[in-house]
Amino acid sequence: MSFHRAAFANWAASAAVVAATLSMAAAAHAEVNFSIGVGGPVYEQPAPVYVNPPPVYYQPAPPVYYQPAPPVYYQPAPPAYYQPPPPAYYRPAQPYYPPSGGRPRLSDMQQRALDNCSLLAPREQGRCRATVLSTTR
Fold it and tell me: Rounded to whole angstroms, how far apart are CA atoms 18 and 11?
Protein backbone atom coordinates (compact mmCIF):
# COMPACT_ATOMS: atom_id res chain seq x y z
CA MET A 1 0.00 0.00 0.00
CA SER A 2 1.14 3.39 -0.77
CA PHE A 3 0.57 6.45 1.42
CA HIS A 4 -0.93 9.48 -0.28
CA ARG A 5 -0.66 12.70 1.64
CA ALA A 6 -3.62 14.44 -0.13
CA ALA A 7 -5.98 11.53 0.51
CA PHE A 8 -5.00 11.44 4.18
CA ALA A 9 -5.62 15.20 4.55
CA ASN A 10 -9.07 14.85 2.98
CA TRP A 11 -9.89 11.94 5.28
CA ALA A 12 -8.72 13.80 8.39
CA ALA A 13 -10.71 16.95 7.50
CA SER A 14 -13.90 15.01 6.89
CA ALA A 15 -13.41 13.11 10.17
CA ALA A 16 -13.00 16.41 12.06
CA VAL A 17 -16.19 17.85 10.51
CA VAL A 18 -18.11 14.68 11.45
CA ALA A 19 -16.78 14.76 15.02
CA ALA A 20 -17.68 18.46 15.44
CA THR A 21 -21.16 17.86 14.10
CA LEU A 22 -21.73 14.91 16.45
CA SER A 23 -20.49 16.84 19.49
CA MET A 24 -22.75 19.78 18.69
CA ALA A 25 -25.71 17.44 18.28
CA ALA A 26 -24.91 15.77 21.59
CA ALA A 27 -24.60 19.14 23.32
CA ALA A 28 -27.93 20.31 21.87
CA HIS A 29 -29.60 17.11 23.00
CA ALA A 30 -28.19 17.49 26.51
CA GLU A 31 -29.51 21.10 26.68
CA VAL A 32 -26.12 22.55 27.37
CA ASN A 33 -25.80 26.29 26.78
CA PHE A 34 -22.60 28.14 26.03
CA SER A 35 -22.17 31.83 26.71
CA ILE A 36 -19.33 34.28 26.68
CA GLY A 37 -19.43 36.96 29.37
CA VAL A 38 -17.41 40.12 29.46
CA GLY A 39 -17.10 41.66 32.91
CA GLY A 40 -16.89 45.35 33.57
CA PRO A 41 -18.61 48.22 35.36
CA VAL A 42 -22.33 48.46 34.67
CA TYR A 43 -24.01 51.88 34.34
CA GLU A 44 -27.75 52.26 34.41
CA GLN A 45 -29.26 55.52 33.36
CA PRO A 46 -31.66 56.91 35.97
CA ALA A 47 -35.37 57.10 35.16
CA PRO A 48 -36.40 60.35 33.50
CA VAL A 49 -37.94 62.94 35.78
CA TYR A 50 -40.75 65.16 34.45
CA VAL A 51 -40.53 68.79 35.35
CA ASN A 52 -43.39 71.14 34.57
CA PRO A 53 -42.34 73.90 32.20
CA PRO A 54 -42.43 77.43 33.56
CA PRO A 55 -45.73 79.27 33.03
CA VAL A 56 -46.01 81.13 29.77
CA TYR A 57 -46.89 84.82 29.85
CA TYR A 58 -48.39 86.48 26.84
CA GLN A 59 -48.20 90.21 26.87
CA PRO A 60 -51.55 91.77 25.96
CA ALA A 61 -51.82 93.48 22.63
CA PRO A 62 -51.24 97.22 22.68
CA PRO A 63 -54.42 99.27 22.78
CA VAL A 64 -55.79 100.42 19.44
CA TYR A 65 -57.39 103.83 19.12
CA TYR A 66 -59.76 104.47 16.25
CA GLN A 67 -60.56 107.84 14.80
CA PRO A 68 -64.28 108.61 14.94
CA ALA A 69 -66.16 108.37 11.69
CA PRO A 70 -66.72 111.61 9.82
CA PRO A 71 -70.19 113.11 10.21
CA VAL A 72 -72.76 112.20 7.58
CA TYR A 73 -74.57 115.00 5.76
CA TYR A 74 -77.78 114.32 3.89
CA GLN A 75 -78.99 116.54 1.13
CA PRO A 76 -82.06 116.13 -1.04
CA ALA A 77 -81.64 114.10 -4.18
CA PRO A 78 -81.45 116.02 -7.45
CA PRO A 79 -84.70 116.15 -9.40
CA ALA A 80 -85.10 113.28 -11.82
CA TYR A 81 -86.67 113.51 -15.25
CA TYR A 82 -88.48 110.46 -16.52
CA GLN A 83 -89.41 110.13 -20.17
CA PRO A 84 -93.05 109.28 -20.82
CA PRO A 85 -93.61 105.65 -21.77
CA PRO A 86 -94.00 104.82 -25.44
CA PRO A 87 -97.56 104.32 -26.67
CA ALA A 88 -98.88 100.79 -26.16
CA TYR A 89 -99.52 98.67 -29.22
CA TYR A 90 -101.89 95.78 -28.98
CA ARG A 91 -102.14 93.37 -31.89
CA PRO A 92 -105.56 92.12 -32.82
CA ALA A 93 -106.77 89.11 -30.87
CA GLN A 94 -106.58 85.72 -32.56
CA PRO A 95 -109.93 84.02 -32.96
CA TYR A 96 -110.37 80.77 -31.08
CA TYR A 97 -111.70 78.96 -34.13
CA PRO A 98 -110.43 79.46 -37.65
CA PRO A 99 -112.48 81.98 -39.57
CA SER A 100 -113.50 79.36 -42.16
CA GLY A 101 -116.54 78.07 -40.28
CA GLY A 102 -118.17 77.09 -37.03
CA ARG A 103 -116.25 73.82 -36.54
CA PRO A 104 -112.49 73.55 -36.16
CA ARG A 105 -110.39 71.40 -38.45
CA LEU A 106 -109.76 67.99 -36.93
CA SER A 107 -107.04 65.50 -37.68
CA ASP A 108 -107.96 62.00 -38.80
CA MET A 109 -107.55 60.59 -35.29
CA GLN A 110 -109.62 63.39 -33.75
CA GLN A 111 -112.37 62.91 -36.36
CA ARG A 112 -112.46 59.17 -35.66
CA ALA A 113 -112.69 59.82 -31.90
CA LEU A 114 -115.53 62.33 -32.49
CA ASP A 115 -117.39 59.77 -34.63
CA ASN A 116 -116.96 57.14 -31.92
CA CYS A 117 -118.68 59.43 -29.40
CA SER A 118 -122.03 58.52 -30.99
CA LEU A 119 -121.51 54.91 -29.87
CA LEU A 120 -121.63 55.91 -26.19
CA ALA A 121 -124.68 56.35 -24.01
CA PRO A 122 -126.55 59.63 -24.69
CA ARG A 123 -125.59 61.19 -21.35
CA GLU A 124 -121.85 60.51 -22.05
CA GLN A 125 -121.80 61.84 -25.64
CA GLY A 126 -121.63 65.52 -24.70
CA ARG A 127 -118.63 65.04 -22.44
CA CYS A 128 -116.90 62.91 -25.11
CA ARG A 129 -117.38 65.60 -27.78
CA ALA A 130 -116.12 68.31 -25.42
CA THR A 131 -113.03 66.26 -24.65
CA VAL A 132 -112.23 65.68 -28.32
CA LEU A 133 -112.80 69.35 -29.26
CA SER A 134 -110.61 70.53 -26.37
CA THR A 135 -107.61 68.92 -28.12
CA THR A 136 -107.93 71.22 -31.17
CA ARG A 137 -106.14 74.49 -31.53
Answer: 11
